[in-house]
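WARN retry 2 of 3 for item q-0093 after timeout on previous attempt; input resubmitted unchanged.
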Amino acid sequence: MKFNEVDFDTYFKNYPNKEGFFGKYGGAYISPELKDAMEEITHAYFTICKSAKFIAELRKIRKDFQGRPTPISHLERLSNHIGTGVQLYVKREDLNHTGAHKLNHCMGEALLAKYMGKKKVIAETGAGQHGVALATAAAYFGLECDIYMGSVDIKKQAPNVARMKILGANVVEVTEGLATLKEAVDGAFAAYAREYKDAIYCIGSVVGPHPFPMMVRDFQSVVGIEAREQFLEMTGELPDSVVACVGGGSNSMGMFSGFLNDPVDIYGVEPLGRGPKQGDHAASLTYGEEGIMHGFNSIMLKDENGEPAPVYSVASGLDYPSSGPEHAFLHDLGRVKYDVIDDEETVDAFYTLSRLEGIIPAIESSHAVAYGIKLAKQMDKGSVLICLSGRGDKDMDYIIEKYGIR
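OK item q-0093 returned
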């Protein structure tokens, strides 16, 4: 199937299908026990998402608690610094409560948990932003909260670990394997298999078995819907290009959702890390192949045995050996172009945005900023809208320790 064979006017009604597939990607490759649990979540979600009471409560939470809508900022000084005439803009998810886009789906998932009568939420986290967001949602709704996090990421993201604990979450250290995001997901899934009757797994991205890729996309679509309306109001036209970073892909899928049916170029930016050698990056859509992990079929990085390959990124939230199935689908369709940015380009963008605009971006978001800068240098006119998925408070100590002040 190609891009011109998909009707994007009805895209969100048709994808995923009732089995949770985006073309050949997605699905639910899970044990019989977890299948029943996922069907329970799916039924509850399709019931509640059509409820006027649920929608009204979620809108109130977004306005009065999260501080939505988040604004768009014109990066005038950075645009002038590039000097091509191309204008850069950022959608400010760093100004969403807790400092990133993650709260958009965490409040929805926790509200769903309350609806289902669950007492606990379970999740994984890499950079810690999803963990902080879910701990916040759990505190808001009065739920218990267990967050699984690799020991490597616990050291890199100490401020977010402290925030989770202050909010009352139980942070469970995962020491197996590379002790990063994949292993945290492994640990969270194992815990959920034991506790699914009383708990719900609030996955942190558009990954995992159906219905999570759909559910997280739907909750995150507020980013793209807002951004499209705001950009039109601000400039009188649509952006020429939209850019967002892609690990699992929640911020990007939320952002892209608002523009899929528009004449806009869309770019997903993957982490090239130290380079293209296996183990030095986490660019699954660029270097991977079709494969199943964590209950879903997508494009993933594999080792010589066909197992998930070791991955690396300077950004803890991007070091995952696969991407969401909808990203794999959009990749194959050619609707979204997926490209890479390495660690050095990312760190340069981190400092450039901070110095020229007074915005310290998350190191994950810095991948998108770096690509937006590169794109603007290649264009002779137009505009680029970047999803600034989170703020960089959590990364400052690590970046200064590893790279110094530039």
